[in-house]
Amino acid sequence: MSTEAVVEFLGNVPLLQRLPSSSFKRIAELSVSSEKGDYIVRGGEVGDGIYFVWEGEAEVSGSVHAEEEKGIEYQLKRYDYFGHVNLTSVHVADVIALTKLTCLFLPHEHCTLLQSKSIWSKDKTLETCAPVESILHLEPIELNIFQGITLPDAPKFGKVYGGQLVGQALAAASKTVDSLKIVHSLHSYYLKAGNFNTPIIYQVNRLRDGRNFATRRVDAMQRGNIIFTLLASFQREEEGFDHQEASMPSMPDPDGLLSVDEIGESRPTGPPLPLSNRKKVGATKIVTWPIEIKFCAPSTNPNLKKSDPSLRYWFRAKGKPSDDQALHRCVVAFASDMIATGVSLIPHPRKGSLSLSHSMWFHRHLRADDWLLLAIVSPTTCDSRCFLSGQIFNRKGELVVSLTQEVLLKMASPPYPSADSKL
């Protein structure tokens, strides 16, 4: 068995959807193929590790709880597993091969690899990882179901931040796909405002699992209501054609620019953002944001004209996210909604805006902790719906992401006239 084949196999074992992708390769290197006869393990014997069914079928028989369970027996098939993680546990039943059975075996001394405090890293805890990584951490509840929360210092504007829903939903989908496949496109809809004081349940639906592609639908729910839904497609990397016609727009190098944090500290009027965002991105709040942002000065950036619905800025994750391409794409999805919706308000001074839909296409590998340039423009608005189109480039000028978004512009409502008393 090749390491790549084993990694792909392990990514489809339900027990392992909570593990970081770095653990899969390590488990693949340590596990061995084990072809057994009639009895794989016997009840009463001390466990020596974990068995993953690679090929064939087996049945569990003679459970010590058989009388209580009325003698119920069940079968084990591909992706099922059995055994114990330490030498002190005893098998409670026989496992008998029904056909020729091939298992991957992980000895007990390496079973600590099956335990992880984070879905993104086997070495980091939520306290030591990058701020955005802790926001994108989900708690696996059961197969295909995850729980996310809104951390106290996470971005929020009276409701769950839209980028958090995209990033967490994509994280949930990514954990149900083998680590050799990574997201290449997503399409999402915002259905209801999320309550940031209530946990969010992410239900993943496995629509397709092919050799090279996989498709997932994720419903984000609060109190039984679907507030957000995402459809994502994942592809196994392969060599193919390559070209790029898009050119990175002119922008000063980020190393010579002040960050929004620094501008907020030095200028009480706030950074050069659309007016609707200045109250949201003031000096007292931006320091808690997990994303660092840099704009060029208004005098040198033609995209900051009062009536021009476009914007360009550099951004990157604060800290050092774990080295997982799936995580880095989730981070970019999280960050892509941070300021983009404010572009829609530049030519239309309204009370506010509300995201309706969000789509992204990931073209090339990226690092969310390296500077990325987002250039976004609104080519049209009609019927109160503003359409946004954006491109994200790395510092080499490579187009790494394309995105679109539709935003609902909300008119400022006039106050109700006071009623005159008829008495």
Percent range for β-strand residues? 25-35%
Count of the domains: 3
Order of helices and strands: HHEEEEEEEEHEEHEEEEHHHEEHEEEE
Q: Can you tell me the overall shape?
A: elongated
InterPro entries: ACOT8-like_C (IPR049450), Acyl-CoA_hotdog (IPR042171), Acyl_CoA_thio (IPR003703), cNMP-bd_CS (IPR018488), cNMP-bd_dom (IPR000595), cNMP-bd_dom_sf (IPR018490), HotDog_dom_sf (IPR029069), RmlC-like_jellyroll (IPR014710)
Domain Cyclic nucleotide-binding: 15-87
Keywords: Hydrolase
Protein name: Cyclic nucleotide-binding domain-containing protein
Describe the structure.
The chain has 423 residues and is α+β, with helices and mostly antiparallel strands. It folds into three domains: 112 residues, Jelly Rolls (Sandwich); 106 residues, Roll (Thiol Ester Dehydrase, Chain A); 157 residues, Porin (Beta Barrel). The strands form three sheets. The chain has a twelve-stranded antiparallel sheet. The chain has a four-stranded antiparallel sheet with strand order 1-8-3-6. Strands 2-7-4-5 form a four-stranded antiparallel sheet, with no helix packed on it. Helix 1 packs across helix 2 and helix 4 runs antiparallel to helix 8. The protein starts with a helix and ends in a 13-residue tail after the last strand. 40% of the residues are buried. About 7% of the residues have low confidence.
